[in-house]
Automatic annotation (TrEMBL):
Coiled coil: none annotated. Belongs to the nitrite and sulfite reductase 4Fe-4S domain family. GO terms for biological process: sulfate assimilation. Its EC number is 1.8.7.1. Pfam families: NIR_SIR (PF01077), NIR_SIR_ferr (PF03460). InterPro entries: NiRdtase/SiRdtase_haem-b_fer, Nit/Sulf_reduc_fer-like_dom_sf, NO2/SO3_Rdtase_4Fe4S_dom, NO2/SO3_Rdtase_4Fe4S_prot, NO2/SO3_Rdtase_4Fe4S_sf, NO2/SO3_Rdtase_FeS/sirohaem_BS. This is Sulfite reductase [ferredoxin]. The gene is sir. Signal peptide: none annotated. Residues 166-318 form the Nitrite/sulphite reductase 4Fe-4S domain. Its cofactor is siroheme; [4Fe-4S] cluster. GO terms for cellular component: sulfite reductase complex (NADPH).
């Protein structure tokens, strides 16, 4: 680890294990926190933001930013009881902006919360056994797991491992309880962070559990990807390390990287091996420059062999090689499915993860009246699980009464159903351009194009959009990725695998939003003309190569 610490590292070191200056600034009469407070707030699951749509007008009036806060609720595996979901929904009206935002890591975000609402919101969550602790910050974030409740004798156990691992990797500091839950102040020499230490991790750390043969979680994009090994039930796990998608425009050394297979271990060893990997990143990840602090750069710099040897040294035991992985699908479990235990589940499409208006009221009515459990998905959608067959018609009627469409019943275009976008403007401080607000129009233009070309039935390309290069909606692993480059323009990536096993490549820079569908037209026409039977668009792009695609685009434009 470098001796030189970045500014954020110094703030963490001086925070008394995530207390200061949040504890002092929470009730100081201001509507925002200092820069130091903002950095520490992240560990408590809170981002300080302002409405960027209003910046210019407020500045002209001599006013400061219109501050508000985004609060992220960590929900391991996206699993919620009916009571928990209803509590989350209540808070959206009481303290938020009347929406819930499902994230690509199965969390829930509140936007538009004022400073005075932070404490009551977190206290209400706590009463329902929910927390925002370590939903953000330089720690292990929300642990993701495949949400589909198929009764295969494995998935329920995998979810239990995900939930247990999440709890095991939470920070041990009492700061969260002291500040938000009025706990007795307990900072002392005896308080320790045995896993994280005084400066926690160099950067955020992401973990996801796939299901057997099912990569709906995008397991290769994680710091640690965990894949079940199934024999007579769940026998072990294959671990992948060093994935991550964020990059910075203009810094060629930063780039998206897919995780690499490290080892296959018995399930009893999972916790100790994961903790050893986290400790290696804690001790050896860069702390001088945050743009290079993710574990993917440590694995890339050292090489997998040295990284594995270091993990083995921390464990005190050798690790076996990784077994080969095989993938059958990477879908999001939308529509009706039989669970295999006599019950059903329904995957409900939530456009860009934003639960609002009639959709929100319809979901609430279903949970309230039928007592349904909920799972949030890595594609920002929602599952109703454990539905008795006799409730199927009632559930559909409830949703339809609120204008909520059921997937695969002809109401939602397939390309719309598969698309994702991050929140971006107006609240995200990192956004360069639009994503969530732009995607509905863009994706419907693409749907019209697919219909014109006779491609609307599939295979349908997965299209993802982000407002900056950090990649929150995972555009780099999509078949078509749109990454914010400047105001109203994007870098177009092509060729990602629909199974999540291959990254797309940059195809065209500074693509204007209004030109996205026109640029895709000749490429999709070429796909229709030259694809193999059943070939996905991303696989086609990879097979023919970007130069052939550029030639087609150039010919269409001249």
């Amino acid at each position: 680890m470098s001796e030189k610490l970045s500014k954020v590292e110094q703030i963490k070191l001086q925070s008394q294990r995530l207390r200061g200056p949040v504890d002092r600034e929470l009730e100081n009469g201001l509507d925002h926190f200092s820069e130091e407070g903002y950095q520490i707030l992240k560990f408590h699951g809170i981002y300080q933001q302002d409405d960027r749509d209003l910046r210019k007008a407020r500045k002209a009036q001599g006013l400061g930013p219109a501050y508000s806060f985004m609060i992220r609720v960590a929900i391991p595996g996206g699993a919620l009881t009916p009571q928990q979901y209803l509590a989350l929904d209540d808070l959206a009206d009481r303290l938020g902006n009347a929406t819930l935002r499902i994230t690509t890591r199965q969390a829930i975000q509140y936007h538009g919360v004022h400073k005075g609402g932070l404490k009551p919101l977190i206290q209400t969550l706590h009463r329902h056994l929910l927390t925002t602790l370590s939903a953000c910050g330089d720690v292990v974030r929300n642990v993701v797991a495949c949400p589909a409740p198929f009764a295969d004798g494995v998935r329920a156990e995998v979810l239990a491992y995900a939930q247990a691992l999440s709890q095991r990797l939470k920070p041990r500091t009492r700061a969260y309880y002291e500040i938000w839950l009025d706990g007795e102040k307990a900072v002392s020499a005896e308080e320790s962070e045995p896993l994280y230490g005084d400066t926690y991790l160099p950067r955020k750390f992401k973990i996801a559990f796939a299901a057997p043969g099912d990569n709906c979680v995008d397991v290769y994009t994680q710091d640690i990807g965990i894949v079940p090994v199934v024999g007579q039930g769940l026998e072990g796990f294959t671990l992948l390390v060093g994935g991550g998608l964020g990059q910075s425009h203009g810094l060629k050394e930063t780039r998206p990287i897919l995780a690499k297979p490290l080892t296959t271990i018995p399930k009893a060893q999972l916790f100790e091996v994961v903790e050893a990997i986290v400790r290696v990143q804690r001790d050896h990840g860069r702390r001088d420059e945050r743009k290079y602090s993710r574990m993917k750069y440590l694995v890339e710099t050292w090489g997998l062999e040295r990284f594995k040897a270091t993990v083995e040294a921390y464990l005190g035991t050798p690790l076996p090689p990784a077994e080969p992985l095989h993938w059958a699908s990477g879908d999001d479990h939308l529509g009706w499915h039989e669970q295999g235990d006599g019950r059903l589940f329904l995957g409900l499409f939530v456009e860009n993860g934003r639960v609002r208006d009639e959709l929100r009221r319809g979901i609430r009515a279903a949970v309230e009246q039928l007592g349904l459990e909920v799972r949030l998905t890595p594609q920002q959608n929602l599952l109703f699980i454990n539905v008795p067959p006799e409730q199927k018609a009632q559930l559909e009627a409830l949703l339809q009464a609120h204008g909520v469409p059921i997937p695969f019943q002809g109401q939602i275009p397939l390309v719309v159903q598969q698309a994702m976008a991050c929140p971006a403007l107006p609240t995200c401080g990192l956004a360069i351009t639009e994503a969530e607000r732009a995607m509905p129009k863009v994706i419907r233009e693409v749907d019209a194009l697919l219909t014109q070309l006779g491609l609307q039935e599939g295979p349908i390309p997965h299209i993802r959009m982000t407002g900056c290069p950090n990649g929150c909606a995972r555009p780099y692993s999509a078949e078509v990725g749109l990454v914010g480059r400047s105001l109203n323009s994007y870098t177009l990536y092509l060729g990602g695998s629909p199974l999540g096993t291959r990254l797309g490549e940059p195809f065209l820079d500074n693509l204007k939003r209004e030109d996205i569908a026109p640029v895709l037209r000749p490429l999709l026409a070429y796909y229709k003309e030259a694809r193999l039977e059943g070939e996905a668009f991303g696989d086609f792009c990879q097979r023919v190569g970007l130069e052939a695609l550029r030639e087609r685009l150039h010919a269409a434009q001249t």
